[in-house]
């Protein structure tokens, strides 16, 4: 197929001749592409946030189910789990949610063994001005930015009184705050020694929330989780890949929902374009008539219409993406990102990380440009087959 | 090449350069803090982001919700106080609660 | 059943294709039944106009189908992260019983639609429009194939099951498997490679002899042997793993998307060879530059696949 420069030139000048109409279409098309690409960009960014930490999550988590609900698991099971071949380590964990009524928020409280040397190095990177001696001596905790903010709104500057299961108050000192670079993960987290968590939640010392396993060879994970299922039929075994699937699903689902709505508006757009392309002014008809009288073939006129459509859609595509990038990553997507945020009183102030892959661009391309081109096929053919004498009369 | 085509080409070129500048700007300014985040997750070991935590089964969805990915089905977008049963008490130790009762 | 953005996009495009191709199908039946160049009445005139619409529709579908095929593989690769056990598109495609057929139909349709356009270009240059009836008969067949492909594709995505554990490409493409690919592994790889290079040298010879029927046959054989030898032998060098034979994994980022380059060059090379020879057989006046094009792209393909084992040997001093 050879591209005829003169035809392109003609297509451009015919676009300029109908500037109001062309600009109207470019405007609408740009806004459609902008809306769609913003949603996809936001969803991609949040998904990326989730996926970059996926490998650090526990390879296998063992939970106990009782009466169809999650129940605390006996600590004695740790030894049995350790005896399974391939299991490198099994760590009992204590974590849960603490509902802070004054503000109506849920904090996630996570227990760690102690503020130990093994964590020391990691902590220095994560936490601002930390004092390890202080942490070990007193009852104290490290909190996320969001927790800190909520607590200080309620006049807890240096400490917080947890209401224990039996109604007593437990005073725990706030020793420091997680750095804001991890705010998306740490916003609502409270980290404290395990015995304090047990105390606040009123849990038995013989039970823990779940057990985390480390497997030497990742390929053995399915086999080992099967073995655990057989060993303890009342457990629920969550592997790292289950988490990956759940991540993928929730965002595909949300952007899919949006897209299902988008398809409706895309077809509306299809109708508009179809209508615009078939309703010709008498001047345009004259133009076609003159061209045909000059000896243009049907193919040439269809080609011109295609060039016009391609120029319009390509410019709108570029414009839409430029505006969407600006809106999402520089303005941080006001309004739209709430679709993905959920409802929460502890909204973290975070920046959407910039991520752009080829597949998203491809996807945007397939969802927009073909619809536009498809809409003009039949109208432009109908224009092209008009007889010269008919329209010139 | 006609004058108009020249204008159009330079306009498209302009758009491309805006796009490149935008992308370059973003690549240079945004950083993901991958290492810090991974360190944090290694310590805490909990999945999901802190962007929706009004109800606890939303926060660590994969762990806290036993049976399904979307707790009560995708049709229902749960809203925290109204569709969520929580054993709260509005007068416990005289602490005020955000959840208001209508008697 | 998933509702990922990619799948919605593919569905939407399929529906557009279906809509337009039904339109074109009805017109083609009309043309095949009533076409007569010698008549000068209203109907013949109308059919001539309508044939242009059909050609436009087919061009539209073909031009979109090319990148859409790549996008389909992209999507399958992405879904493989969600489906348990799948490492790449192979696992996803084979998790459904007709997955392989979907692929076969996709490739077949690409060939047929491409060929149709080449035929159309030749036909429009002919004042007698002598090929028009043939052209539209071919489209009626192509329409059936397209419908089958679309039905396959829609039911493929709607029957994907997240809970099912599928076999990964490592087991699918191995000697021990009972999958649809296993017959390939009964061929000793030395014979397959010898045959591959033999066919290629024949292809070179025939392209200089400029004999269309031979060139057509050799291109079809070359396409098949290229795929078999890629799975059996060359793939293992791309992965640098003697046991990994998957023809999909090298479409992924880890291998610098080299698979797309390989498949695209192979497609262009064999396609221009096949369609060019058929067209030349139909019309003696057709231009003969397809020999050069076909030879060029097929040689690029051969050069790339050959480079992998050689580079491996230079680096490691042994063969796999």
What does this structure look like?
- With 393 residues, chain A is an alpha+beta fold.
- Chain A has 2 domains: 195 residues, no CATH class; 136 residues, no CATH class.
- In chain A, the strands form 2 sheets. In chain A, strands 1, 2, 4, 5, 6, 7, 8, 9, 11 and 12 form a 10-stranded mixed beta sheet that branches. Chain A has a two-stranded antiparallel ribbon with strand order 3-10.
- In chain A, helix 12 packs antiparallel against helix 14.
- The longest helix of chain A is centred in the middle third of the chain and has 39 residues.
- Chain A is elongated.
- With 103 residues, chain B is mostly helical.
- The radius of gyration of chain B is 25 Å and the shape is elongated.
- Chain B has 2 domains: 30 residues; 64 residues, no CATH class.
- The C terminus of chain B is likely disordered.
- Helices cover 49% and strands 0% of the residues of chain B.
- Chain B starts with a helix and ends in a 20-residue tail after the last helix.
- Chain C has 10 helices and no strands.
- In chain C, 73% of the residues lie in helices and 0% in strands.
- Chain C is mainly α and 320 residues long.
- The mean pLDDT of chain C is 84.
- Chain C has 2 domains: 166 residues; 154 residues.
- The chains are: A alpha+beta (393), B mainly alpha (103), C mainly alpha (320).
| Secondary-structure content class of chain C | mainly alpha
Taking Cα atoms only, what radius of gyration of chain C do you get, to the nearest Å?
Answer: 22 Å
SS field, number of helical segments of chain A: 15
Shape of chain C: flat
Sheet with the most strands of chain C?
A: none
Quick one: biggest sheet of chain A?
A: 10 strands, mixed
- Describe the global form of chain A: elongated
Low-pLDDT segments of chain A: none
Q: Which strand-content bin applies to the residues of chain A?
A: 15-25%
Order of helices and strands of chain A: HHEEEHEEHHEHEEHEHEEHEHHHHHH
Order of helices and strands of chain C: HHHHHHHHHH
Q: What topology emerges from the helices and strands here?
A:
The complex is a heterotrimer of chains A (393), B (103) and C (320).
Chain A: H1 5-17, H2 19-52, E1 60-66, E2 69-71, E3 73-74, H3 77-83, E4 87-100, E5 105-112, H4 117-126, H5 132-137, E6 140-143, H6 145-153, E7 159-163, E8 169-177, H7 183-186, E9 189-193, H8 194-201, E10 207-208, E11 210-215, H9 221-231, E12 235-239, H10 240-278, H11 282-293, H12 298-330, H13 338-341, H14 358-384, H15 388-392
Parallel strand pairs in A: 5-9, 6-8
Antiparallel strand pairs in A: 1-2, 1-11, 1-12, 3-10, 4-5, 4-11, 6-9, 7-8
Helix pairs in contact in A: 1-12, 2-10, 2-12, 10-14, 12-14
Chain B: H1 3-29, H2 34-44, H3 56-59, H4 61-64, H5 80-83
Chain C: H1 5-34, H2 42-79, H3 89-94, H4 99-125, H5 132-158, H6 169-172, H7 189-209, H8 212-239, H9 258-282, H10 290-316
Helix pairs in contact in C: 1-2, 1-5, 2-4, 4-5, 4-9, 7-8, 7-10, 8-9, 8-10, 9-10
């Amino acid at each position: 197929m050879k591209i005829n420069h003169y035809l392109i030139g003609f297509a451009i000048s015919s676009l300029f001749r109908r500037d109001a109409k062309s600009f109207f279409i470019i405007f609408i098309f740009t806004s459609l592409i902008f809306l769609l690409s913003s949603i996809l960009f936001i969803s991609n960014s949040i998904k990326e946030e989730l996926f970059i930490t996926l490998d650090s999550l526990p390879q296998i988590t063992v939970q106990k189910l009782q009466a169809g609900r999650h129940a605390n698991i006996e600590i004695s099971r740790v030894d049995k789990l350790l005896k399974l071949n391939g299991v490198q380590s099994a760590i009992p964990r204590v974590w849960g949610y603490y509902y802070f009524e004054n503000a109506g928020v849920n904090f996630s409280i996570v227990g760690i063994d102690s503020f130990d040397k093994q964590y020391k190095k990691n902590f220095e990177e994560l936490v601002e001005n930390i004092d390890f001696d202080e942490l070990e001596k007193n009852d104290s905790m490290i909190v996320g930015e969001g927790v800190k903010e909520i607590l200080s709104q309620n006049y807890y500057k240096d400490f917080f009184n947890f209401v224990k299961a039996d109604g007593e108050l437990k005073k725990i000192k706030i020793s420091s705050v997680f750095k804001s670079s991890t705010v998306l993960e740490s916003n609502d987290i409270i980290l404290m020694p395990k015995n304090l968590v047990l105390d606040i939640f009123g849990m038995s010392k013989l039970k823990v929330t779940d057990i985390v396993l480390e497997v030497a060879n990742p390929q053995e994970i399915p086999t080992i989780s099967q073995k655990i299922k057989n060993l303890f039929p009342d457990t629920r075994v969550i592997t790292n890949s289950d988490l990956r699937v759940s991540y993928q699903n929730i965002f595909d689902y949300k952007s899919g929902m949006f897209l299902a709505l988008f398809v409706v508006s895309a077809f509306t757009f299809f109708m508009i374009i179809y209508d615009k392309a078939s309703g010709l002014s008498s001047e345009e008809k004259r133009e076609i008539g003159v061209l045909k009288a000059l000896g243009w073939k049907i193919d040439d006129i269809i080609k011109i219409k295609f060039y016009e459509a391609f120029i319009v859609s390509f410019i709108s595509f570029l414009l839409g993406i430029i505006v969407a990038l600006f809106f999402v990553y520089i303005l941080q997507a006001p309004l739209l990102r709430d679709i993905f945020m959920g409802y929460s009183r502890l909204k973290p102030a975070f920046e959407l990380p910039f991520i752009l892959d080829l597949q998203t661009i491809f996807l945007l391309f397939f969802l927009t440009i073909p619809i536009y081109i498809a809409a003009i096929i039949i109208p432009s053919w109908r224009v092209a087959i008009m007889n010269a004498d008919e329209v010139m009369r | 090449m006609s004058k108009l085509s020249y204008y159009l080409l330079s306009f498209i070129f302009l758009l491309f350069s805006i796009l490149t500048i935008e992308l370059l700007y973003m690549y240079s300014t945004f950083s993901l803090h991958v290492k810090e985040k991974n360190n944090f997750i290694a310590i805490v070991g909990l999945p999901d982001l802190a962007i929706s935590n009004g109800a606890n089964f939303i926060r660590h969805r994969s762990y806290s919700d036993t049976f399904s990915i979307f707790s009560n089905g995708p049709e229902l977008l749960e809203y925290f106080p109204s569709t969520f049963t929580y054993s709260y008490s509005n007068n416990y130790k005289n602490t005020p609660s955000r959840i208001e009762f209508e008697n | 059943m998933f509702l990922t953005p990619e799948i919605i996009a593919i569905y939407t495009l399929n529906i557009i294709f279906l809509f337009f191709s039904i339109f074109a199908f009805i017109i083609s039946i009309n043309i095949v039944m009533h076409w007569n160049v010698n008549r000068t009445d209203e109907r013949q005139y109308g059919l001539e106009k309508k044939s242009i619409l059909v050609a436009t529709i087919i061009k539209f579908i073909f031009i979109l189908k090319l990148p859409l095929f790549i996008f389909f593989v992209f999507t399958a690769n992405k879904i493989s992260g969600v489906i348990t056990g799948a490492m790449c598109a192979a696992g996803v495609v084979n998790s459904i019983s007709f997955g392989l057929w979907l692929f076969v139909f996709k490739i077949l349709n690409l060939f047929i639609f491409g060929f149709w356009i080449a035929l159309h270009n030749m036909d429009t240059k002919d004042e007698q429009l002598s090929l028009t009836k043939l052209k539209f008969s071919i489209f009626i067949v192509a329409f059936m194939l397209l419908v089958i492909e679309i039905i396959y594709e829609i039911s493929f995505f709607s029957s994907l099951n997240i809970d099912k554990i599928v076999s990964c490409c490592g087991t699918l493409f191995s000697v021990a498997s009972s999958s649809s690919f296993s017959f390939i592994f009964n061929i000793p790889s030395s014979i397959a490679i010898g045959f591959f290079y033999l066919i290629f040298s024949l292809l070179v010879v025939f392209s200089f002899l400029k004999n269309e029927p031979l060139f057509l046959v050799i291109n079809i054989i070359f396409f098949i042997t290229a795929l078999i030898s890629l799975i059996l032998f060359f793939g293992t060098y791309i992965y640098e793993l003697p046991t990994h034979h998957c023809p999909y994994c090298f479409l992924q980022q880890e291998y610098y998307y080299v698979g797309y380059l390989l498949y695209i060059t192979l497609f262009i090379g064999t396609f221009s060879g096949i369609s060019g020879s058929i067209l030349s057989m139909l019309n003696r006046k057709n231009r003969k530059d397809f020999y050069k094009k076909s030879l060029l792209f097929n040689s690029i393909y051969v050069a790339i696949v050959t480079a992998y084992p050689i580079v491996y040997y230079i680096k490691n001093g042994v063969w796999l």
